[in-house]
Write a structure and sequence with these properties.
Helix 3 packs antiparallel against helix 4 and helix 8 crosses helix 10. The protein starts with 10 loop residues before the first helix and ends with a helix. The protein is mainly α. Helix content is 71%, strand content 0%.
C-alpha cells in the first residue's frame, strides 16, 4: 500500500501521488492510460475550468480551485508517463515554459522598452518567428493564416481576427449581417435540393459567418454559445421541474403544453439570466 504524503500543499506531494497511482501497486485505471487515451480528459478538464471561470455564483472561486487542480493533474500525469519512457520530466516542462516566458518578455526580463500592449504583441510575434527559424521550421508567408487548432467556432473567430489584420474583412457588423442573410438564403436553397453535401456546406458557411458577426460585435462566439447552452439547459430543467410539480408525465404532454411550461420557465429565470 502506498503511503499518503503528509503535506498536501506542496507540488512535490502531488508528484508523489501521481507516481503512486502509476506505480506497481497503483490504480489499474491510471496505469492503463496513455497520452492518447487522456486527450479527451485534457479537453474536458479545460472546458470545465472555463465554465468555472465564467460562473457568476458564490461558489466560483471554489469551483475554479477544483478545476485548476484537475488541469494540473493532467499536466503531471502526462509528465510522469513521459518520464517513465525517458522522454522528459515535470522539471523539464517547468524549465521549458520558464525559458519561453523569459525569452518572450524581454520588456520585463531584459532592457527592451515597449509603449503599450499592442507593441508587446508585435514583439511577441517577431520572437516566435525567430524561434521557428532556429528550430528549422519551414517559414510561412507573412500573410498566411496559421491559426492554431481550436474548437471549430473559436477557430472561425481566430481566422476572422487574422484576416481583419490583413485587411480582408467587412467594414462593420451590418455588412456581416448581409452576408449571414445571404448564406441563410443559400442554405434554404440547399434544403430544397435535399442534398446532404450541399446542406452541410451551406450550414458551415452560415456558422462561419455568424462567428464573424460576433467578432464585429466585440463578442467571442464560443463564449456566447456557451452562455446560450447554459441558458437553454437551465430553462429546460426548470420546465421539467414545473411539470413534475404539477404531477405531469412529460412524455405524454402535448407540444402546446410543453411550450406553456417553456414560457413559464423562461419567465421564472428571466432575472437570473440577466444577472
Amino acid at each position: 500500500m502506498a503511503k499518503s504524503p503528509s503535506n498536501l500543499r506542496q507540488i512535490e506531494s502531488l508528484v508523489e501521488i501521481v507516481k503512486s497511482l502509476r506505480g506497481p501497486d497503483g490504480c489499474p485505471w491510471d496505469k492503463e492510460q496513455t497520452h492518447e487515451s487522456l486527450t479527451q480528459y485534457a479537453i474536458e478538464e479545460t472546458h470545465e475550468l472555463v465554465e468555472a471561470i465564467e460562473d457568476k455564483g458564490s461558489h466560483r472561486d471554489k469551483k475554479m480551485k477544483e478545476e485548476l487542480g484537475d488541469v494540473l493533474f493532467q499536466v503531471l500525469l502526462h509528465s510522469e508517463m513521459a518520464g517513465e519512457r525517458g522522454a522528459f520530466t515535470l522539471a523539464d516542462v517547468i524549465e521549458s515554459i520558464s525559458e519561453k516566458l523569459i525569452r518572450r518578455h524581454p520588456h520585463v526580463f531584459a532592457d527592451v522598452s515597449v509603449a503599450d500592449s499592442a507593441e508587446v504583441i508585435r514583439n511577441w510575434e517577431e520572437i516566435k518567428k525567430k524561434e521557428k527559424a532556429l528550430k528549422g521550421e519551414e517559414a510561412k508567408s507573412a500573410y498566411a493564416l496559421n491559426v492554431p487548432p481550436l474548437p471549430a467556432l473559436q477557430r472561425a473567430f481566430k481566422i476572422g481576427k487574422r484576416t481583419e489584420k490583413l485587411q480582408f474583412d467587412w467594414a462593420n457588423a451590418e455588412g456581416v449581417m448581409v452576408k449571414v442573410e445571404e448564406e441563410l438564403d443559400e442554405l434554404r436553397e440547399a434544403l430544397d435540393l435535399v442534398s446532404a453535401a450541399e446542406i452541410e456546406h451551406e450550414l458551415g458557411d452560415v456558422l462561419f459567418s455568424l462567428a464573424q458577426l460576433g467578432r464585429h460585435l466585440g463578442m467571442d462566439p464560443e463564449q456566447v454559445l456557451r452562455k446560450a447552452n447554459s441558458r437553454f439547459e437551465a430553462r429546460f430543467n426548470k420546465m421539467i421541474e414545473f411539470s413534475e410539480a404539477d404531477s405531469k408525465d412529460w412524455g405524454t404532454l402535448s407540444l402546446d403544453d410543453k411550450e406553456a411550461y417553456w414560457l413559464k420557465a423562461k419567465a421564472a429565470l428571466k432575472n437570473t439570466e440577466k444577472a
